[in-house]
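[recover] target loaded
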């Protein structure tokens, strides 16, 4: 496991070689962590899935009761300090719990909102009195939490909120006026973190309790998916909130909003990973039992290809998720040793890896969509029937690309944060980019491949990083400040980074597990992903270069890009068949 001395800083993987033995993988979970995840999956299978139709009909009190049951089993306060009634578990364990609860459809959304944005703002930014009042009741499930940030005209642009807060003449209350929309758990929550502007400009967070004068809610939204998740509008009409319910510093609400989102993005990746594994397992079982032309459809090559690709994306996403989770855990420990409080340490660690959190959110949510979509296809006509869970999975999955900041926003944020870290001197991109520019001017090395194990794969991942530096460096040099307005180019660069980070994470996991019982199948997974990623990175880079370069500069950049995305040919058909055969034989995803 990676030690603090060898800890890679945010985005540093782009310019620094990582070591397999420093990389945390799911195979490193200890017994306690595995038991925590098993408890969560058992809870979903026994308490949630049998009631899923009733949940989707928004049966009164049902979701609240399930959240209370989860609280009784300690599932709501795993990462909360023991001083507030929590279990005080590490960040990796709390991430595993999110994964374990991820197969619960609307319940997963409700419990993630409660334990995340419904609880963490108070835990991290509340006063001692606020924490003692609210946290024990939130982690027990007695009180349910929600988060009011989005407004009808301020979605991605959260700071454009119109809800106002004005100090009352006696100085005892802030008077809130405005509305919030798309509030998860809004219909039954007891405690809300609500953002408003004091005097129309100081963006500030408030703890609002159900029953406060002037606070009402709208009717339940009729949604495409996650139908069992309560989603309402909140209305504030001269709502009186005690001054002691200001959360954090006045005018610093954006610090709360944006820092909570960093953790939320990683935890969303964990939840969709759990959902994807559950969906993949159901699909494998269906493919093994559904017969056409007198044999199970799992025996057909077209179905094998789909099952294999689903497994590839699940395994790769899992590799990147827990690699990052361990970084955050290690950074949190380092900050605690430096005297930071629990909240400061975890928020600081999540902020350090905000780029990776955004990357995980994008790939995780798109992986889940892919698994759900291919699952429906394998089920065929039955996949379009409400009798099969896969149809619910398909509908429920779609929201994840919008939650926690749309995937477009997260792509733009990832590149923006990388460039800002470079400008602040936290990431030496300039030296690395110059080295790549000099390399493409030199004669390529046509020597034979190094005979060391995985040398070809490691070289390819290293070259993927060079491709990013080549394209991003040229774009910055050519467009300067205008680059921020070229969103298509930024998204191309982001996609190159997303594929590269996941490719490296998967390869490091493979090398570390070279003697694992499933090593040969994992080798096929990584080979297929690297092979596909090289082509995709070439396409993204080519599109970006063609958007800002021309003439000799364009030709030189395209030649360099082609050099850095060249991969050895492999028989992906046979590799995917071997992956699928393992899934089919086990009748389950067991990698």
């Amino acid at each position: 496991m990676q030690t603090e001395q060898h800890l890679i800083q945010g985005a540093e993987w782009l310019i620094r070689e990582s070591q397999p033995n420093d990389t945390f993988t799911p195979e490193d979970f200890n017994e306690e962590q595995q038991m925590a995840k098993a408890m969560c999956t058992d809870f979903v299978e026994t308490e949630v899935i049998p009631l899923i139709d009733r949940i989707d009909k928004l049966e009164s009190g049902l979701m609240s009761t399930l959240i209370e049951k989860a609280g009784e089993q300690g599932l709501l306060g795993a990462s909360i300090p023991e001083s507030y009634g929590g279990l005080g578990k590490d960040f990796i364990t709390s991430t595993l719990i999110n994964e374990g609860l991820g197969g619960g459809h609307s319940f997963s959304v409700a419990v993630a909102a409660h334990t995340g944005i419904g609880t963490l703002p108070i835990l991290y930014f509340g006063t001692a009195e606020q924490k003692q009042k609210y946290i024990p009741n939130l982690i027990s499930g007695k009180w349910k939490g929600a988060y009011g940030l989005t407004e009808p005209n301020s979605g991605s642009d959260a700071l454009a909120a119109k809800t106002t807060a004005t100090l009352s003449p006696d100085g005892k209350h802030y008077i809130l006026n405005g509305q919030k929309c798309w509030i998860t758990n809004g219909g039954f929550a007891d405690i809300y973190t609500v953002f408003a502007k004091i005097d129309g400009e100081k963006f500030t967070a408030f703890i609002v309790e159900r029953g406060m004068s002037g606070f009402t809610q709208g009717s339940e939204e009729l949604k495409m998916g996650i139908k069992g998740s309560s989603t309402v509008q909140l209305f504030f009409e001269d709502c009186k909130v005690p001054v002691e319910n200001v959360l954090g510093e006045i005018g610093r609400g954006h610090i709360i909003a944006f820092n909570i989102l960093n953790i939320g993005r990683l935890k969303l990746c964990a939840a969709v990973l759990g959902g994807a594994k559950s969906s993949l397992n159901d699909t494998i079982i269906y493919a093994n039992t559904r017969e056409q032309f007198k044999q199970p459809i799992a025996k057909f090559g077209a179905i094998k290809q789909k099952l294999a690709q689903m497994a590839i994306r699940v395994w790769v996403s899992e590799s990147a998720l827990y690699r990052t989770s361990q970084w955050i855990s290690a950074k949190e420990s380092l900050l605690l040793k430096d005297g930071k409080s629990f909240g400061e340490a975890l928020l600081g660690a999540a902020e350090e890896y905000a780029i990776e959190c955004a990357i995980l959110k994008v790939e995780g949510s798109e992986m889940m969509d892919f698994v759900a979509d291919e699952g429906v296809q394998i089920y065929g006509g039955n996949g379009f029937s409400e009798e099969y869970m896969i149809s619910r999975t398909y509908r429920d999955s779609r929201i994840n690309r919008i939650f926690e900041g749309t995937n477009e926003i997260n792509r733009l944020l990832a590149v923006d944060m990388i460039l800002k870290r470079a400008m602040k001197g936290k990431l030496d991109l300039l030296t690395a980019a110059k080295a790549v520019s000099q390399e493409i001017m030199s004669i390529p090395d046509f020597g034979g491949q190094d005979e060391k194990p995985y040398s070809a794969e490691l070289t390819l991942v290293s070259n993927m990083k060079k491709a990013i530096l080549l394209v991003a460096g040229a774009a910055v040099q050519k467009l300067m400040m205008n680059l921020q307005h070229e969103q298509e180019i930024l998204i191309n660069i982001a996609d190159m980074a997303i594929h590269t980070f996941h490719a490296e994470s998967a390869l490091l996991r493979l090398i570390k597990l070279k003697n694992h019982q499933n090593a040969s199948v994992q080798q096929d997974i990584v080979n297929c992903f690297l092979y596909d990623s090289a082509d995709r990175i070439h396409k993204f880079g080519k599109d970006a270069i063609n958007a800002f370069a021309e003439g000799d500069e364009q030709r030189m950049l395209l030649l360099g890009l082609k050099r850095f995305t060249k991969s050895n040919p492999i028989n992906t058909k046979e590799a995917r068949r071997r992956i699928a055969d393992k899934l089919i034989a086990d009748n389950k995803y067991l990698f």
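[recover] notes: The chain is about 55% helix and 10% strand.
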